[in-house]
Amino acid sequence: MKVLMFGWEFPPHISGGLGTACYGMTKGLLKQGAEVLFVVPKAYGDEDQRAVRLINASDVTVDVTDTEFRQFAKNFTYMEVGSNLVPYLDPEEFEKIKNESKLEKELRKKSIYSKNFEFSGKYGENLMEEVSRYALVAGSIAANYDFDVIHAHDWLTYYAGIAAQKVSGKPLVVHIHATEFDRTGEEVNTIVFDIEKNGMSAADRVIAVSNLTRKIVIERHGIDAKKVFTVHNAIDPVDKPEVLEIKKILKEKVVTFLGRITFQKGPEYFIEVAHKILEKDRNVRFVMAGSGDMLNKMIRRVAQLKIADRFHFTGFLRGEAVDRMFALSDVFVMPSVSEPFGLVPLEAMRTNVPVIVSKQSGVAEVLKHAIKVDFWDVNGTADAIWGLLHYKSLSEMFIKYGKDEVDSLKWENAAVKIMDVYRDAVNH
Under a CB-based contact definition with an 8 Å cutoff, are residues 58 and 41 in contact? Predict the structure, then answer.
């Protein structure tokens, strides 16, 4: 089975769980006999290509005089990025985008139809321009490569998947890692919602990362339930076992939040929980690792609660730094308001850290040895943290059985299910 796959990021250059999932998935698919041609907006040259052949969309030239190109381009409406469309920005970048001039926007709009285009591959001010250009490049790639099925990850690549489908006539599978409802709650950006719905409607098959996400896709996007399949994410073992041997030098216990500091991830609940714990026990340090549009607000709240001497902001962490952070942690908390899956708890568990996850997460569907709470239940979360910090046998039980459980969640098992979806789409 030859797969033309469209993604937005690939390790080591990642901004969240999407790139990590794509990497694990491609390795799992290789073990199932699939050949994956993976397209990214921007490749840096240091990506691990043992399980995948990477195509750099920035290297693909589009013939703007070609009749077929012009016909295809007519179907595109240039879309301007909205502030809540940029989930991975720091506050400074956020302000810069907001103040962009009309002239700058017009110049960006014209460049999409240039012969050569250098993608940033990031989630910046020209995001929608890059999404549109990526689709044009996808049509060119689909016309020049041999493959059996198209696989597009998340809304950023859905138009690329549709373009490849139209050019090649091959079946399209779209993968839902998060929906606009997860990212923004009820204040959805209609542009993104429409892209999601168009992508899922055009797809021959849809893969959701959890039953929670599948339900949203069917009920909120109106997609036919018969073509939506759940394939839960997985996790690779720790690449460097020596990380597990890191010695803790802090006398205090460490409780960690790691994720984007945005509405979806529930960072404000973590801070309120920290305040409750610290009222009773000052021998605890809380760490918030990540960046996002709510960062400054969270810093102010920590200052208001007068817990800054026991609360630390690390900024965004990636790769080995994540495993090192977990190696220093005693408890990991994921209080997400709406989490389609949530790979980070699995990363914590494989590093021998007991975890607390919100019931509003897809990962709660597959984990038995994790404490599950409602994201809004600050008292319940505080009680769970207190128990794991103060009752050694409880913590040891979750560490032991949690590690065994997460080691059984392999990408090769998820790949078996994905291959079944491919075959179903191809033979339909």
Answer: yes
